[in-house]
Design brief:
hpI Integrase, Chain A; 3 domains; three-stranded antiparallel β-sheet; 6 strands
Length: about 325
């Protein structure tokens, strides 16, 4: 390695790990060039120089293509369509936290916070894989960015028992719809998880439904209620060649669901609200939030806490222990 002039700029050649590269210092000042050269030597010795070079030459579009080919999740295609026009042409080194922050602020003017959450979550996951597995970058510009939606976009819609009864009564066409709705109401599974469910993932002996790949990428098992067990046993007499419990498209489900909603005049109700119904019923009947978290497949308890207010009576037992320390007229020494 050594400095030399090419035109007005100083350059140097590096050779490491069998690779030879000519690098511009981007300056015609000898002292600045020497500093850049010395920094490069140090980075090579510490084994981080080529990682930095990869970040400078790999575009966001290239990272996205490789990531989605290996780790694609439901809804990622919608998020990537929004991210690529803005970041696709940039190298990983050019994408800064400030740049992503500006993107977030602009998008918030047009879409709901939950949409931003989906997009930036995907972006953060891609950078994490590029950093940890592929060693393409040392930085994740999304890691320190706050994009939590909190409860700003949280829906508070769930079915009453009466509404559920009417909905299931009318869900007769197509024939699979009622069973699919029972699965949603008794497992809390997301729409994509239900449509991807295979019969081999339904264990009648152990009374378990297994979600092999959830939204957060983790596997979870959900015990079947007696209602669900009976419904699926009757439904599984004819198994489709695909092995799927519900071999239908998202579009077919959406059309059938919307048509049924029209029959029962349910207002402001979405398919995802069936998941809210499942969680709300559990909490209203005193099920521990950590158990609800596991059943829903939430990554953190903070996501499950949105349902906490549905059962304030669950806190009563916590304060009733104080009665052990008092009779109801006179403060006495606490009894063991």
């Amino acid at each position: 390695m050594g400095l030399y002039r090419r035109g007005k700029m100083y350059w140097f050649t590096v050779r490491a790990n069998g690779k030879r590269m000519q690098v511009s210092t981007k300056t015609d000042n000898r002292k600045l060039a020497e500093k850049a050269y010395a920094k490069t030597v140090t980075d090579i010795q510490e084994g981080i120089w080529f990682e930095k070079q990869k970040a400078k030459t790999t575009t966001f579009a290239e990272m996205s293509e490789k990531y989605l080919s290996k780790y694609h999740r439901i809804r990622d295609e919608y998020s990537i369509k929004r991210l690529l026009p803005v970041f696709g042409h940039l190298t990983l080194a050019e994408i800064t936290t400030e740049l992503v922050s500006d993107y977030r602020d602009e998008r918030l003017k047009k879409v709901k916070p939950a949409t931003i959450y989906q997009e930036l979550s995907l972006m953060r996951r891609m950078f994490n894989v590029a950093r940890r597995e592929w060693k393409w970058t040392k930085e994740n510009p999304v890691a320190d960015l706050s994009f939590a939606v909190g409860n700003k976009n949280a829906r508070e819609r769930w079915l009453t028992i009466e509404e559920e009864r009417f909905l299931l009564e009318k869900a007769t066409n197509p024939s699979w719809l009622r069973t699919l709705l029972v699965v949603a109401l008794h497992t809390g599974m997301r729409r994509g998880e239900i449509l991807n469910l295979m019969w081999k993932e339904v264990d009648f002996n152990r009374r378990l439904v297994t979600v092999l790949k959830s939204k957060n990428g983790e596997k979870r098992s959900i015990p079947m209620s007696q209602t669900l067990l009976g419904t699926l046993r009757g439904f599984g007499k004819v198994i489709d060649i695909s092995g799927k419990v519900f071999p239908v498209s998202v579009r077919s489900l959406r059309e059938a669901f919307d048509k049924t909603l029209g029959k029962v005049s349910l207002q402001d109700f979405h398919f995802h609200d069936l998941r809210h119904t499942f969680a709300t019923r559990l909490v209203q009947n005193g099920v521990d939030l950590y158990k609800v978290k596991a059943l829903l497949g939430h990554k953190t308890i903070a996501m499950t806490m949105r349902y906490a207010h549905h059962y304030p009576e669950s806190l009563r037992s916590s304060v009733e222990v104080l009665d052990i320390c008092y009779n109801f007229t006179t403060v006495k020494e606490c009894r063991n």
